[in-house]
Amino acid sequence: MHFLSFNFSAILLFMKSEEIRKRFLEFFIKRGHVIIPSSSLVPENDPSVLFNTAGMQPLVPYLLGEPHPLGTRLADVQKCVRTIDIDDVGDATHATFFEMLGNWSLGDYFKEDAIKWSYELLTSKSEGFGLDPKRLYVTVFAGDPRTSQGQMNVPRDEESVKIWIEAGMPKNRIYYLGADKNWWQAGENGPCGPDSEMYYDVTKEGLGDLTHEQFVEADEKRQVVEIWNDVFMEYVKKDGKIVGKLPKKNVDTGAGLERLAVVIQKKDNIYDTDLFTEIMSVTKMLSPDTKSQRIIADHFRTAVFMIGDGVFPSNTDRGYVLRRLLRRAMMHIDQYSISDSQIDLLVSAVVSKYKSIYENLSAKKEEITKEIGKELVEKFSRTLKRGVKEFEKLSGSDISGADAFTLFSSCGFPLEITEELAKKKGIKVDRVGFVKEFEKHQELSRKGAEGKFKGGLADMSEKVVEYHTATHLLHQALRDVLGTHVQQKGSNITEQRLRFDFAHTAKMTLDEIKKVEDIVNEKIQSALPVERLVMSKEEAEKTGALHFFGEKYGEQVSVYFVGNSPESAYSKEFCGGPHVKNTSDLKGTFKILKEEAVGEGVRRIKAVLL
């Protein structure tokens, strides 16, 4: 890519990102728009996505016809996260967190005002960004049968072409493209419609006029870069089919702040813009490799915003995305090691840049730093060092599925991390073989559970499995309250209750019972993942997993742990299962009904989930 190594006479001044945001919003305030604050990264009422990935998502109810309390003309700067292109992060343009500048018409103005204002804002030297109109190109919807789904035909957008020409665009710089480029939709259900996209020539000498074929080629080579998109929402989709028109026509425009900053600030990549200046100065101390520096900067920036909006590392959903970003960043840090002070520098760099825009980051800075430190320093660093050591032993050639599974089951090493390391060494990982090994061990676990718990579990119904997991929480809670001398002596579980026998010499007091109940209920409410590892008996014993009864174990054992990792797990026991996937799957409040003696030095608890 050959971004902007030339002198732009049309750009009047160097604009920092704060000025770009300000100019955008002030431009639309003057045209009757009300500024709305960015919504959280976590969607409020959209279960179809984990994060807001576009500016329009928080506004879907209003795009479908519900009146917005602030009127019909809105503008904003929306925080967004997309990880679909995570493997491309570190190049010139891709990022997992970005800000989308947008203006909205909810049944108010339509194509004419939207297009003319877009052109004016991009090229105006007084109110806008002062970009050179001779470097602008525009695309519009060509009409495409794939959008009809047998319901209706959406015609070629000749109206937008006419408006663009009136605004000042030469006709030979306007190109018709199909639905893969110029049709916008949020998903299989909701508002949709044709769009018109604006591209900017970022070559040194300038491309000048281009034929249709030359423009497509320039786009593929990234000699022209999309900087703005006007979406004209006329239609509504249901289950992937266009079923009709919206009650009112809407406009949704989007301009990525990071890409605008590249063009306006005359840089050749987003990481050299002022948005990344501070954090890149820190990442240069963590890795000598430029791409790794960029990946660390991007992933930490995204993590700061995620935690700021209430997302915490876990093994499911949003928490898993956050955990993956942090751990992936760790893989690009020299020696795979980071200190608390370095984490503080990274977080401080992000907060310093954005504190005037997003005040919650300053308020939560200490919490954000603590959470990242807990994830990387306390948890992942130990897992990583051990896993990397084992990986090096296996990486003389391509990694088999069995070896990848061994790294996962014995070291808690995620498959994605194994693949990252393999990519660096230029070798491959047998992902299909890994899945087969994983499924094979699941089947062994199921058969083992059927035999081992024939006397302990009444059956494998949903409620019995819940009670089985509850006994693990109860066991550890008893050890927390009464002492580590507590050992399980037996259990019996039915759909109605659990019965748990344990070593202890004294009758429990009411206060001790209450403390145990509170601990178990707190762990249920914390929604902790319940995970299983298969490893050698020797390795399992080294993890500190509890194992009693004087049982004989084979060379390979199954260990269930409750928590985010084996190292930080609240509960960890040799066990054949089965268990719930997450403590939040335990339905009800844990209550001890009875505590009594059943023999010398052995007590029994009967408990239920109410």
Short overview:
The chain is an alpha+beta fold and 610 residues long. It is built from 19 helices and 16 strands.
**Kindly state the mean pLDDT as a whole number?**
87
The strand count comes to 16
Named CATH topology of the largest domain: BirA Bifunctional Protein, domain 2
Report the CATH superfamily of the largest domain: Bira Bifunctional Protein, Domain 2
Q: Low-confidence parts lasting 5 or more residues at pLDDT below 50?
A: 1-12, 445-456, 549-553
Share of helix, binned: 25-40%
Q: Just name the CATH architecture of the largest domain.
A: 2-Layer Sandwich
Report the sheet-strand fraction: 15-25%
The main β sheet shows up as: 9 strands, mixed
* CATH class division of the largest domain: Alpha Beta
Output the radius of gyration: 29 Å
Query: What is the CA-CA span between the terminal residues?
Result: 62 Å
**How does the helix and strand content classify structurally?**
alpha+beta
Fill in the keyword field for this structure.
610 residues, elongated, 20% strand, 9-stranded mixed beta sheet, 19 helices
Overview of this protein structure:
This protein is α+β, with helices and mostly antiparallel strands and 610 residues long. The chain has four domains: 17-272, Bira Bifunctional Protein, Domain 2 (BirA Bifunctional Protein, domain 2, 2-Layer Sandwich); 277-394, no CATH class; 400-453, no CATH class; 462-609, 2-Layer Sandwich (Threonyl-tRNA Synthetase, Chain A, domain 2), CATH 3.30.980. Helices cover 39% and strands 20% of the residues. The protein contains 19 helices and 16 strands. The strands form three sheets. Strands 1, 2, 3, 4, 5, 6, 7, 8 and 9 form a nine-stranded mixed beta sheet that branches. It has a four-stranded antiparallel beta sheet with strand order 10-11-16-15, with helices on one face. A three-stranded antiparallel beta sheet has the order 12-13-14. Strand 15 and strand 16 form a beta hairpin. The longest helix is centred in the middle third of the chain and has 30 residues, at 365-394. Residues 1-12, 445-456 and 549-553 have low confidence and may be disordered.
